[in-house]
Amino acid sequence: MYGMMKVTEKNIANRETDFLIVGQGLAGTMLAFELHRRGKNFVVVDSPSGEKASRVAAGIINPVVFRRLTKSWLVDDLFPVLKDTYHELEKLLSCHLLHTLKINKILGKEEGSFWRTKTVENKLESYIHSEPDTTFHKGGIEAPYGIGKVFNAFRADLPFLIDRFREFLIQENRFISEKLDTGDIIRKTGKVQWKNITAQKIIFCQGFRASDNPFFQPVKFKHTKGQVLDLNIPDLEITNMVNKGMFVLPLGENRFRAGATYRWDFQDTNPDDEATAELTGKMEKIVKVPYSITGKRAGIRPTTHDRRPVVGLHPDYPEIGIFNGLGSKGAMLAPFFAREFARLLCGESDTIHPEVNLLRYYRKK
Asked: How far is it, in rounded angstroms, from Cα 64 to Cα 262?
């Protein structure tokens, strides 16, 4: 519906609204959607030049942590919500966003028995096959000790989601393309004002830019830079994602995406030669056929010191909130915590999961 229409921004005249959301990456998109479902009034403001990790992320939703072969944090709670959320977004936006995905984990020499043991020990039968496939053979992939199979995974098309939802917001006259300066925010009793908009609450969904937000300086951000490669590999005969220290994801028509790197020390958001060399070095251990690099992309993942999202209202300024820190698992975490935050904002609940609650950074020692 909205993806096929030519939409243009309209002037948003002086208005009062329930919520002003700053940022329309994955966090801002998911929170806006949950408020829309609840019939709330809101406006989203987003910088036209804002860089978003969501536009670089492959959107992989993997229910297991391969290193320890354990369930991903809260996965049993996250999966029902994410499937419902993405499917409801698909209905609203008339597009396909959530794709089923199978992952083949290339095993090392001693990993077969480890895979069998941990599948049972950590109750992973709903997500992976307990018995490794030692007969795996696909042209172009080297897996002499077999593979472990993840059958219950997904890929969310995050750039497509953000673009379609922006078109929806513009059509609904709920979007402003402008960089918001926190110095322009005026706090009043029970509300905030930014230029011609008065809101009951302002929620910051700024990604890694939140580090510069003066309202949330106690939050211990530890952002990571990630890079991916777009590849053309005509002779690689796989239809499922493979993983061994990195992922190689088939996209169809000989197109693949490979990644990702993790860097804590970085100067900018641009792809760099060091990350490219790291990825190609790992690629050569997995892919044994020629390939060409067709593109390089990098982004900054918004991450906290404890690798948990940060969600909630400021303890001193309850009209100001934050939804951030989704990190490398944002496609899986965002639907659940956007719903939980929306329930708090709309008076349906008075709690936030303690491991993501903003207040963990404000408690007195």
From this structure: 19
